[in-house]
Design brief:
It contains no helices and 5 strands. The protein is elongated, with a radius of gyration of 23 Å. It starts with 5 loop residues before the first strand and ends in a 39-residue tail after the last strand. By secondary structure, it is mostly beta strands. It has one domain.
Length: about 140
C-alpha cells in the first residue's frame, strides 16, 4: 500500500537508476500481490496513463519481456506525491502485460496476515440491561 507502486524487474540495478532509460533493460518478472494505492486522475486534455500504468515502470521492458501480475488492484485515492504528467518521452518502454485476478483473494483462509477486511454486524436480539443485573440468558 502506498501513494504509488513502482514495479522493478528482476534485472533492476540501483547503480543504473540515474542512467538513461535505454540502459535500464528489464527482464520478464512475475508479481503476486494486492495493490492499494493512489493514481493520477485523468482530466480534460491530460490522460493519466490508465489502469495499464497503474503500477509504475522505470525500465525499458519491450514486448519481449512480460510483466505477469496475479493479484488485485485497488485505487484508494488520488496520489499526493507521485503526480507528474504521464506520457513524457524516454521515461520507459512498457512491458507486455499478462494480468489476472488471483482467485485466492476470494478465500479468507488463503489471505496473508494483516489483510484488511470488512465485517458486517447483524443485530438479532437487543435488550437494555440495568447496571448490577445478573444476565443468565444466552443468545444463540
Amino acid at each position: 500500500m502506498g501513494d504509488a507502486i513502482t514495479i522493478l524487474s528482476d534485472r533492476w540495478s540501483d547503480a543504473k537508476s540515474t542512467s538513461a532509460v535505454g540502459s535500464r533493460t528489464a527482464s520478464s518478472t512475475t508479481v503476486n500481490a494486492a495493490f492499494l494505492t493512489g493514481a493520477v486522475e485523468t482530466t480534460l486534455g491530460h490522460y493519466s496513463g490508465g489502469m495499464e500504468n497503474f503500477p509504475r515502470f522505470l525500465e525499458s521492458w519491450g514486448l519481449a519481456n512480460v510483466f505477469t501480475y496475479n493479484g488485485s488492484m485497488i485505487k484508494m485515492f488520488p496520489s499526493l506525491y507521485a503526480t507528474n504528467v504521464w506520457g513524457k518521452a524516454n521515461v520507459y518502454d512498457p512491458p507486455a502485460r499478462n494480468w489476472a485476478y488471483d482467485a485466492n483473494f476470494g478465500d479468507s483462509t488463503k489471505l496473508p496476515p494483516k489483510t484488511p477486511s470488512l465485517l458486517k454486524v447483524i443485530r438479532s436480539q437487543w435488550a437494555t440491561v440495568p447496571p448490577g443485573t445478573n444476565v443468565t440468558t444466552t443468545i444463540p
